[in-house]
Design brief:
two-stranded antiparallel ribbon, 7 helices, alpha/beta, 215 residues
């Protein structure tokens, strides 16, 4: 099993990079573990308080559970991955069963901040993108998927996203084995990453990887 950590600022293009990795392998060869599924369970806190909490700092994530689940996958055991509702800012009762796969991708803005989690990764990637481009993507996503207005997103960006990015996320570049500038649009860098992942697999990934099929 190869564990890939993909970090980067909100709206940097991490989802695009993950999708291109998945497309490079046979169906079912890649499991994705989003950091966002592991926000701490705050359902006991009043909604008006939850809505104002800081979800862009490492303390908001239940790292012990995430690391335990990764260890289980590496041991060949399936996990029940939690799910999270961004409208109510609380963990949902439903879980998602994830089976062990040849490639496991752990994706999220903070995944390179936790030392134990970093130690478990075979490859650490930081997806980089211009701050203005990231803000535009965040506005589009949050208005469509999370019921926020553009002004709400901008206010949150100025009060939380930007300072937390500078404090916690940007510094984790130093832990990355590979930095992908231009986010998900850097096809050359993404192809190099896919080739490297394939080379780490038994037999050089020949059984499942489709890395020679360049976009």
């Amino acid at each position: 099993m190869v564990i890939i950590g993909i970090a980067g600022g909100t709206g940097s293009g991490k989802t695009t990079v993950v999708r291109r990795i998945i497309e490079s392998f046979a169906p079912g060869e890649v499991a994705v573990i989003p950091q966002d599924c592991y926000y701490k369970d705050n359902h006991h806190i009043p909604l008006e308080v939850r809505l104002k909490m800081n979800y862009d700092e490492p303390a908001s994530i239940e790292w012990t559970l995430l690391c335990r689940h990764l260890r289980m996958l590496r041991e060949g055991k399936a996990i029940d991955m939690p799910t999270y509702d961004f409208l109510t800012c609380a963990r949902m009762p439903e879980t998602v069963k994830v089976e062990p796969r040849e490639v496991v991708v752990v994706e999220g803005i903070l995944v390179l901040t936790d030392p134990e989690l970093r130690e478990m990764m075979d490859v650490k990637v930081f997806v980089d993108a211009d701050a203005d481009e990231r803000l535009i993507r965040v506005i589009s996503r949050d208005c469509i998927e999370r019921g926020r207005t553009p002004q709400m997103v901008i206010d949150r960006y100025q009060s939380t996203l930007k300072p937390m990015h500078e404090l916690y996320i940007e510094p984790t570049k130093k832990f990355a084995d590979l930095i992908l500038p231009q986010g998900g649009n850097n096809i050359v860098a993404i192809n190099l990453l896919k080739d490297y992942i394939a080379a780490l697999l038994p037999g050089g990934g020949k059984a499942g990887c489709k890395c020679d099929n360049r976009p």
